[in-house]
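Design review, sub-item: ligand-bound model
Attendees: FS, YL, KQ
YL presented the inputs for the guanosine-5'-monophosphate complex:
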Amino acid sequence: MVTVKINDLEFKKFIPASKLEAKIAELAHKINEDYKGKTPVFLPILNGSFMFASDLIKEIRIDCRISFVKTSSYAGTSSTGQLKTLIGHEESLFNQHIIIVEDIVDSGLTLDKILTELRDRGAKSVEAVSLLRKKPAREKNIEVKYVGFDLEDEFVLGYGLDYDGLGRNYKDIYKAFSPK
Ligand code: 5GP
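KQ shared the predicted structure:
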């Protein structure tokens, strides 16, 4: 078993890079089909989605634009429940087809806030693609049109996702476990 230790927690390999790559190709294929002739704007939510957004957008074959938003609602392994939009979207997203790019949807608080804000600003359409979706988001029926992998309520890191700032550089996704 491949494991890593960060501060007080142990993590084991969960989704290998090869599986991520295959799933991302599938997601990109669907987006390429659905947005033909539409020139969407991809809106990756930093920091966590930087690797996913990069790999996904490399597989996009239609004309598109890219703009970034930065938010934070996590401290350690749980949501603080308070969302701060740290860097806004400067360009006008009015009348644009927007695709929000998320690493993971957990409580759905982040995504819900961004979806509402963009719709209020007059976007033509707003959808979301998330590499991962946790159980609370499914239970609350948070709108995510494109989902890579559904997870239980478990803490993961790697492939852009961090634990207190560490682990974003791993190319595979790991999940926290308690060693016996
Ligand atoms: P939500 O607002 O849906 O509760 O949380 C969304 C954000 O919390 C994600 O974009 C991500 O940055 C962070 N997050 C949620 N679950 C996890 C997790 O299991 N691991 C890590 N590293 N971050 C998470």
